[in-house]
């Protein structure tokens, strides 16, 4: 039950982070924003690690440490940058719907590499959660904050969907590849080591963009500093701890499906904070997702 609560809480926290990132960060270069949010999250994770675990507990086998660093490099340093880039082309509703790709990616990779076998009830619950996304349709509305970047980037569903799909696939691969190490590594050390790999990779990626100094400073010039700090705290600290904890205490397929409810939460928060309209489809999506959660937890 603890793992289920953690996974659902992670979905809510991530949805809040998406709304704040969409509101405050779409005008910034995604690689600069990814580096800044990772740099802000890493000291918090290190402090948490020392407070609860007496320091970073590295795996005894150096190969396992390398795997965790590579996992963070792929899932945070590269994948997060790609996902942030996709947000430049998508509305909040687009983002919420496309996030449904993550669960199938995790399940497919888990079945292929770890021979995980979901039970029939889990599959039915997963179908209800995935089916909830079919009711969600982005509707025409007024431009939301941050939809157009300083570089003139316009909404482009096809381009944004391609980047989002790629980023989510890499994110799924980054977490699945180290699933066997979860049992032998303390939670906060696990998260911190992955973030170290993410920061190093994000820094290397950042060095490849032109006008790096200007792009880095641009992140701190946003008029929405409070929202940006909140987004960084939620996405690179709180949600990542809850996310890893969910996978640590649950089977990967269950954690992925419960995390998928973030889609519904994101749509509902977009209605409240981005002034999107509530529709029959969004109500049906919420009901379907709740049924799925009940089936997964019985």
Q: What is the topology?
A:
Layout (H helix, E strand, L loop, with lengths): L1 H23 L5 H24 L8 H25 L5 H7 L3 H13 L5 H13 L24 H20 L10 H20 L5 H8 L5 H25 L2 H8 L2 H12 L6 H18 L1
Helix pairs in contact: 1-10, 1-11, 1-12, 2-3, 2-8, 2-10, 3-7, 3-8, 4-12, 5-7, 5-11, 6-13, 8-10, 10-11, 12-13
Written account of the structure:
This protein is an all-alpha fold and 298 residues long. It has one domain. Helices cover 72% and strands 0% of the residues. Helix 1 (2-24) crosses helix 11 (252-259) and helix 12 (262-273) packs antiparallel against helix 13 (280-297). The chain is globular. The termini are close together.
Name the features.
298 residues, mainly alpha, 13 helices, 72% helix
């Amino acid at each position: 039950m603890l793992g289920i609560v953690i996974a659902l809480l992670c979905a809510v926290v991530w949805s809040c982070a998406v709304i704040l990132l969409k509101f405050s960060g779409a005008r910034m270069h995604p690689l600069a924003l990814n580096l800044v949010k990772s740099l802000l999250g890493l000291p918090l994770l290190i402090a948490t690690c020392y407070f609860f675990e007496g320091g970073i507990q590295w795996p005894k086998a150096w190969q396992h440490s390398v795997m965790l660093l590579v996992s963070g490099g792929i899932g945070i340093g590269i994948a997060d940058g790609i996902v942030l880039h996709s947000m430049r082309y998508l509305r909040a509703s687009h983002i919420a719907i496309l996030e449904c790709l993550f669960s199938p990616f995790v399940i497919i990779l888990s079945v292929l590499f770890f021979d995980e076998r979901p039970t029939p009830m889990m599959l039915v619950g997963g179908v209800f959660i995935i089916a909830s996304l079919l009711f969600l349709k982005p509707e025409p509305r007024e431009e939301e904050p941050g939809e157009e970047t300083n570089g003139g980037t316009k909404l482009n569903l096809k381009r944004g969907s391609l980047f989002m799909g790629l980023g989510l696939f890499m994110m799924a691969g980054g977490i699945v590849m180290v699933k066997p190490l979860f049992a032998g590594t303390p939670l906060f050390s696990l998260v911190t080591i992955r973030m170290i790999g993410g920061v190093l990779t994000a820094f290397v990626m950042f060095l490849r963009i032109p006008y790096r100094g200007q792009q880095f400073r641009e992140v701190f010039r946003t008029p929405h500093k409070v929202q940006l700090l909140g987004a960084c705290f939620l996405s690179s600290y709180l949600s990542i701890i809850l996310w890893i904890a969910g996978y640590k205490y649950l089977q990967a397929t269950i954690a992925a499906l419960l995390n998928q409810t973030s889609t519904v939460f994101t749509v509902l928060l977009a209605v409240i904070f981005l002034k999107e309209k509530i529709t029959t489809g969004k109500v049906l999506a919420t009901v379907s997702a709740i049924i799925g959660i009940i089936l997964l937890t019985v």
